[in-house]
Amino acid sequence: MCRAVQGDIDVVLRVVKEAGCQPRDVSVLILSTLSDLHLKYKLGRTLLKREQRLESEWLGTSLSFYREANIRMICGAIDYARTQGIEQIEFAAEDASRSDLDYAIEWANACQLAGGTRFCFSDTCGVFTPEGVDHYFPAIVDTLGVRDGKLDLTAHFHNDFGLGAINTVRAVMHGATHPSLTANGIGERAGNTSLHQFVMVLKELYGVTLPGFKYARLQELRNAVERASGIPIQPHEPIIGEGVFSHESGLHTAAILVHPAIYQFIHEQDVGGTQRFVFGKHSGGSAIEEVLKKHERLLAAQGVVLSEDLVKQTLERIKELRESKIETGFSKRAVEDYYSNYQKLGIDEAALIELVLEITKAPTPVTTD
C-alpha cells in the first residue's frame, strides 16, 4: 500500500528487490480519494503544489480543478508503477461512499485505462447503507465491466453504524469480486467488516456456503487475535462472542432443554463455540436441575440427593450471590480494570509527552575528582 507518489512506489520496489522478488510478483495498492470533502480539504494543497499553483488559492479554487488534478495524480502513479514492472495494481478510493457517482466512475475508468487492475471502493467513515450500496455498485459493476472480468472490485467498508457485514454482502451480490474483511472486525474506530459476520450471514441467512472455509475454527481465530492484539471481543459480539451461546433466563433455559432451536439459531459447534448455562438473578430451576442431573454421580458420592427442594435452595442462593457481587463493587471493578488495561495497549497523550521529555532530556554530566 502506498500513496499516489513516485517516492512511495520506489520504496515498494526497493523492498521487493531486497526480498529477492520481481515487481510482477506483488500486488500494489495505490491510494487516493474520491469525495469532494477529501479532495479539497485533505488533498487540496497537495494537488495545488503538484499542479504548480499557489497554496493561497486553496479555498477559492473550484472543485472541478481538484477532481481533474486528482485523476492526473493517481493515473500518473499507476503509469509509473506499470513502467517499473508492477502488473497487479489496485487503485483505492478513500471516502468513495460520499462521492459523486459519475465522478467515481470517471475516476475509476481513467485508473483502469492507465493500467490499474482492481478498484477498491471504500466506505471510509462507515456511513454506507444497503440502499447506498444499491445506488453505487450496480452502476460501477456494469460500466467498468466487472462482470465481464475486465476489472476486479473490492468492497472495503468500515463498521461505524454496525452495517459493515450486510453492506459487504450486498456489494458482493451486486458483483463486487473481493470483500475486504478483518479477523474480529479489527480496524480504525469501530473497525472494519468482520470475517465472522460476513461468512455467517452468507451461510445462515442467504444459504451461501464458502467451499473449503473452516467455519468451526472461527472461535479459535477469535482467541488467537485476542491474544495477539490484547483486545478482547465484547461478550455479545455476534457469532463468536463469549456470551452468544450462554443462556441465563429461566424461560430461555427451560426451552433450550426442550430444543435448542427455540432460542438459538446458530449451532455453537458450527463455529467452534460452546453452549452453556449462566446462573444469576434471571435463572430458573430447570437449568439448575439439568446441571445437577449431569453431575448426579459426583453429587451422590458426596451423599447429596437431588430433590425439588435442593433445586429451590440452590436457586435462591445463586441470586443472593449475584446481588452480593453488585453490592461489593465487583462489577464496577471489573469494568474499570477492563478499560484501564485497554488504555495501556497504546500510548496516550500524557504518556507521549513523558516519552518526548525522556528522549530530549540532557544527560547528567559525570564529574570526576
Provide a descriptive summary of the structure in words.
This protein has about 375 residues and is an alpha/beta fold. Among the domains are: about 1-180, Aldolase class I (TIM Barrel, Alpha-Beta Barrel), CATH 3.20.20.70; about 280-345. It is built from 15 helices and eight strands. Strands 1-2-3-4-5-6 form a six-stranded parallel sheet. Helix 10 links the parallel strand 7 and strand 8. Helix 4 (about 65-85) packs parallel to helix 5 and helix 11 (about 285-295) crosses helix 13 (about 310-325). The mean pLDDT is about 90.
Could you write a compact summary of the structure shown?
The mean pLDDT is 92.
Number of strands: 8
Helix content: 40-55%
CATH topology of the domain at 2-180: TIM Barrel
Q: Main sheet, how many strands, which sense, barrel?
A: 6 strands, parallel
Low-confidence stretches: none
The CATH homologous superfamily of the domain at 2-180 is termed Aldolase class I
Q: How large is the radius of gyration?
A: 28 Å
Report the total helices.
15
CATH architecture of the domain at 2-180: Alpha-Beta Barrel
Could you say which structural class the secondary elements and strand pairing correspond to? Answer: alpha/beta
Q: What is the approximate shape?
A: elongated
What's the overall average pLDDT, rounded?
Answer: 92
**Percent range for β-strand residues:** 5-15%
* Termini Cα gap: 58 Å
Query: For the record, what CATH class of the domain at 2-180 applies?
Result: Alpha Beta
What topology, given as strand order, has the largest sheet?
1-2-3-4-5-6
SSE arrangement, N to C: EHEHHHEHEHEHEHHEHEHHHHH
